[in-house]
Specification:
The chain is mainly α. Helix content is 34%, strand content 0%. It is built from seven helices and no strands. α3 packs across α5.
């Protein structure tokens, strides 16, 4: 007579068996024991897994909050992706490198040349600058470490129609 199995009377399943050679490396058994890891932690006073990396000390007082910094990064990335490809190439297609250059007020003239900032009015400018042509990568300022990437300043939109993707 055939047997019927239910949730309360399941069939007996044989355990796993294999004829293959085991790949377990038994010499590491002690290093994997939880009590061995905790004993080592208590002796050293430092978690061995955390102390493997270097420490970082950052001044985060200028960053208002995590959400605000993430939003600032998203705005910079969105604006950067809207720039023409030749301008993005000058910054190695890196939005954070672009943000570092834009956040430095000493780079305002360069940013006007490539069309990222609006040109100065004629009375402030003195004389008209010729339109930029050719490769500006030699004049491109390089991003420096430690510049204010998370400043609350938003880069100004491009004004010249030939430089925008709209």
């Amino acid at each position: 007579m055939p047997k019927f199995f239910t949730k309360y009377n399941p069939p007996k399943i044989p355990g796993f068996s294999s004829e293959m050679e085991s790949k377990v490396q038994e010499q590491f058994a002690d290093a994997c024991q939880t009590d061995t890891i905790i004993r080592k932690y208590n002796m050293m006073g430092v978690n061995p897994f955390i102390s493997a990396g270097g420490s970082q000390y950052l001044d985060t007082t200028q960053i208002p909050s995590f959400v605000a910094s993430q939003n600032a990064q998203a705005k910079v990335k969105e604006y950067f992706e809207g720039l023409p490809s030749d301008i993005r190439l000058e910054f190695n297609n890196d939005p954070m490198q672009f943000a570092e250059v834009v956040s430095d007020p000493r780079n305002a003239e360069y940013l006007r040349e490539i069309g990222v900032l609006a040109p100065l009015p004629a009375e402030q400018e003195g004389e008209k600058q010729p339109a930029p042509s050719g490769d500006n990568s030699a004049k491109a300022p390089h991003a420096s470490e430690g510049s204010d990437v998370f400043g609350q300043k938003e880069p100004e939109k491009a004004v010249s129609p030939e430089k925008s993707n709209v």
